[in-house]
Amino acid sequence: MSNKPRLSTCMIVKNEAELLPACLDSICEVSDEIIVMDTGSTDATIDIAKQYGAHVEVIEWKQHFGDARNEALKLATGDWILSIDADERLTKEDTVLLRSLLDGSHEYEGWFLQVEHFLSDDEDAVPISINPLLRLFRNREAYRFEGAIHEQIAPVILRERPEAVFGISRCRIRHLGYQSHIVMNKNKIQRNIALLEHTLETEGREPFHLFNLAVEKLRLGSIEEALSLLIEAKAITPSSATFAHLMIKYEAMALAAIGRYEEALASCRSGLRFYPDYSDLYFAMAHYEEALGQRKAAVASLKRAIELGPPPNHYHTESGLATYRSHAKLASWALEERRWREAEEELELALKDAHCPVSTWLAVHRLQRLLQHYSTAADWTPREPYLQGQEALTIHRPSTSSSQSAVNSSGAARPSESWLLLQSQEKQRLLQYTLELMQPLDAHPEEAQSSPMPQAEEPPSKSGHSPELTALESSLQCLRLADGALARLQAHDRSQELAIAIRLICPIGAMALTLAEARGRIQ
Questions:
Q1: Which parts of the sequence are annotated with region: Disordered (predicted)?
Q2: Would you say the pTM of this structure is higher than 0.85?
Q3: I need a surface site. Which of 236, 369, 445, 514 has the fewest CB within 10 A?
């Protein structure tokens, strides 16, 4: 008989026929048993669960998530419990890692897993936020969830075993439940608010419940109500609470949303006294400083966020705040101030993060190609305010020897080239096709009068065009025509400087549109 620890995966469901199969696919191989508690499905949820060999029980829904989860725990026979929902998936690359946590966890009572929240089920999507949650824990009779909503088990484990130790793993769970159509269909915000308000009435104004109600109010757009709840919760929450750092971030966010930027900054600075390695707060500060016209301070805050890097795994964070999003913001400010090479460098640095979106890769290539044609723009910065500089930009015809190299001056591959190699073959093909569409209308403005529209070889596409794709193509056509008009303006001395500046900046904002059109053609 094997001594390998057994894993029971437990979940509660209702009308999850659409989402459940992918969830069960992700955990069926790593689980020794799957226990599903159904709270009243009227679709094919129960049949789907049984097809995967799950033990299914139907229970009455009593407006209490903790009690429903505990019904599943009562039936579990494994040594460990994995708690997961139908709108979640265990990341397939991490199944071996999850199993290793069980095999080598003699000193741990549970593991925090990294729950990544996505707004798309696309495999290439980037999570909007990452939240460490205790989802893997030992199966002991005394360990039961508490709370009608945002139920917890870590406090229970610590009460039962004060000496308990938790581990923080890199193992990831993909959560899709924040997608707008799912939130709307399930009426999640209103449901959560009702449960939280009832909990506050019956269990008292506990800080964790106040905090979660504030978050729901923020999602609903009730900023003043949310801020009042956050201030109340903050006053009674110890800095050691697992959600305390996030509460400060949300408080600052709420203050900024109603224009109280100075107070938002003060909240962030206060939080950094307790959480000096929480780089999210520096990223937030940069935006509030920028809103106050403090660009120099904002740049310093972003650079501090980059210096710290992504926060340790026990913090809630948002994807890329201390990496590509900070670099991209610095690049946008450099573009605004017409510091082209600095913008190029920041975009390249952003691409060192493998999660950096394709729009950044497209943007840096567009910028690099344009700077080849207008080489004096690379090192030119206006001495006067924007659009008032007197220096002219001379246009140089690029030779084949001056074409953009895939390596930098030290001989190492550019981050943009390394980033591309990490993408799938299909994605690389799509991006190369999109680059062809993004070529400037002309290489030399004096030829603009006769330059034809660039033609790219289209990849195979399905017959017919959706209204959305037709609109995208029409919009992109307008952008190309605008590029042509700017090229003509550029041929005249008096408008040359302005035309070049706009041609360098404007196309970067159109990258997402270009990619959407190309993707639509392939799909």
A1: 445-468
A2: no
A3: 236
